[in-house]
Design a protein that fits this description.
440 residues, alpha/beta, Rossmann fold, 7-stranded mixed β-sheet, 5-stranded mixed β-sheet, 12 strands, globular, binds NADPH dihydro-nicotinamide-adenine-dinucleotide phosphate, binds 2-oxoglutaric acid, GluDhGdhB, Glu/Leu/Phe/Val/Trp_DH_dimer, Glu/Leu/Phe/Val/Trp_DH_C, oxidoreductase, Glutamate dehydrogenase
Length: 440
């Protein structure tokens, strides 16, 4: 794609990875390769790169759970803390069967860059439990969440490390974490976690925030490339916290959302889907395919087919590693806006760049979530609630400011959007480390 007022860019990308390794990539491998590329671009000192390629700490815990039938199952949980030079660690908790140590570390690295891109006073962390939340009753989910909180109590806290929702967790889980932590500490401490229900110190607008930021980034980028939203078709993979909210905002702002999906597959209508009528994952899991069954006039597609639709904008907003070297050549969207964390592998990124497909990176696009988490943390500290209108206004300002800082970097350095975002993030982190001194 070309910006509305500039000449075409030459791509410097080559296929495959610089070290010749093959996919599939873990989140950690992808994050490290992205860091290496950005470090080379910015001429970052090797000791700085070497330190940032590793987490500060990873806590692994055993979480026993008494099942409703009285039996006991034992689960594994993690909290990876990557870098805290700019402030306390911050990042979500994932309940998913695919959680492992390396995934948490890679996702924690992305949180460090995300907070720096948004200029938030936080570092990066991520954690979770290796569990399929669909296999838990509500009571089991509560007991597991409370026991996990007890196990990681020493490493979290409102000025230390502040968890938040991610895949498989929600505002209810955050309320249990706050309650369990507060009971252990002997006083109510809302600022230990964000993404809580507003009645216990949560912020209005946090649930919809990552999807809203995906929509804002899509809108700004379409405008930059002279593409009115009214003439823009969008496919959104995943209809959860990120995907459903992105789809609904883009639909509200005039775009045509032609496809979406859940874990079982997707639905496609070239005239546009009624996205407000499809329940989001938190309202009803697997609701997209259930909706498709009730509407036989709509086309059923697979998740792979959704990614390859001939649309203007593709928003992968479900899981990581869905655009790989195997399907990057088949992507037909002009613009990919990363709703999920790490949906495009390092090798796929190079192929998309070579093909002139712009990729707006996760560390900017879905950063509305952590930005409203920051607003929530401020509200918890000051014990003063913001209105939904204020949250939306301040999020709009933060996102547009960050998007503009990135655009300047992309234009000045003549690099991809991802490289530009890494340039913004790494220079802010390096500056913070330099001013604190004696590092690493
Ligand atoms: N929640 C947040 O605050 C933030 C989340 N993110 C990232 O966004 C992504 C999605 O998170 P979130 O929206 O919270 O997750 P949710 O759990 O709310 O929703 C996930 C959605 O993806 C679908 N899904 C699950 N697995 C697959 C699969 N293998 N293929 C296709 N679809 C699938 C689910 O379908 P079903 O309903 O059938 O289960 C559901 O629609 C993750 O990468 C997360 O890290 C990024 C920033 C903030
Ligand atoms: O809100 C937060 O603190 C973090 C959200 C998150 O995990 C993410 O942006 O990936």
């Amino acid at each position: 794609m070309e910006p509305s007022d500039s000449t075409p860019e030459e791509s410097g990308a080559s296929r495959g990875t610089p070290d010749g390794s093959v996919e599939p990539e873990t989140a950690l491998e992808t994050a490290r390769r992205q860091l290496d590329r950005a470090a080379a671009l910015l001429d970052v000192e090797p000791r700085f790169r070497d330190r940032l390629a590793h987490p500060a700490t990873v806590t692994e815990v055993t979480v026993p759970l008494e099942r409703d039938d009285g039996s006991v199952d034992v689960f594994t949980g993690y909290r990876a803390q990557h870098d805290s030079v700019r402030g306390p660690y911050k990042g979500g908790l994932r309940f998913h069967p695919g959680v492992d140590r390396d995934e948490c570390v890679g996702l924690a690295m992305w949180m460090t860059w995300k907070c720096a891109v948004m200029d938030l006073p936080f570092g990066g962390a991520k954690g979770g439990i290796v569990v399929d939340p669909k296999d838990l009753s509500e009571d089991e989910r509560e007991r597991l969440t409370r026991r996990f909180t007890q196990e990681i109590r020493e490493v979290i806290g409102p000025t230390k490390d502040i968890p938040a929702p991610d895949m498989g967790t929600d505002s209810q889980a955050m309320a249990w974490i706050m309650d369990a932590y507060s009971m252990q500490e002997g006083e109510t401490i809302p600022g230990v976690v964000t993404g809580k229900p507003p009645v216990v110190g949560g912020s209005y607008g946090r649930e919809g925030a990552p999807g809203r930021s995906v929509a804002i980034v899509t809108r700004e980028t379409c405008q930059y490339y002279d593409r009115p939203l009214e003439d823009t078709t969008v496919a959104v993979q995943g209809f959860g916290s990120v995907g459903a909210n992105a789809a609904r905002r883009l639909d509200e702002w005039g775009a045509t959302v032609v496809a979406t999906s859940d874990v079982n597959g997707g639905v496609y209508d070239p005239d546009g889907l009624p996205v407000d009528d499809i329940p989001a994952h938190d309202e009803e899991p697997e609701a997209v395919t259930a909706f498709a069954e009730e509407h036989p006039e709509l086309n059923r597609i697979s998740n792979d087919e959704l990614l390859e639709l001939d649309v203007d904008v593709l928003v992968p907003a479900a899981v990581g590693n869905v655009i790989t070297a195997d399907n990057a050549d088949a992507i037909r969207a002009d613009l990919v806006v990363e709703g999920a964390n790490g949906p495009v592998t390092f090798a796929a990124d190079a192929i998309l760049e070579e093909r002139g497909i712009e990729v707006l990176p996760d560390i900017l696009a879905n950063a509305g979530g952590v930005t409203v988490s920051y607003f929530e943390w401020l509200q918890d500290i000051s014990r003063r609630k913001w209105s939904l209108e204020r949250v939306h206004e301040e999020l709009e300002t933060e996102m547009v400011t960050a998007w503009n800082a990135l655009r300047e970097e992309v234009e000045d350095r003549d690099v991809t959007w991802r490289d530009g975002a890494y340039a913004v993030a790494l220079s802010r982190i390096a500056e913070a480390h330099d001013s604190r001194g004696l590092w690493p």
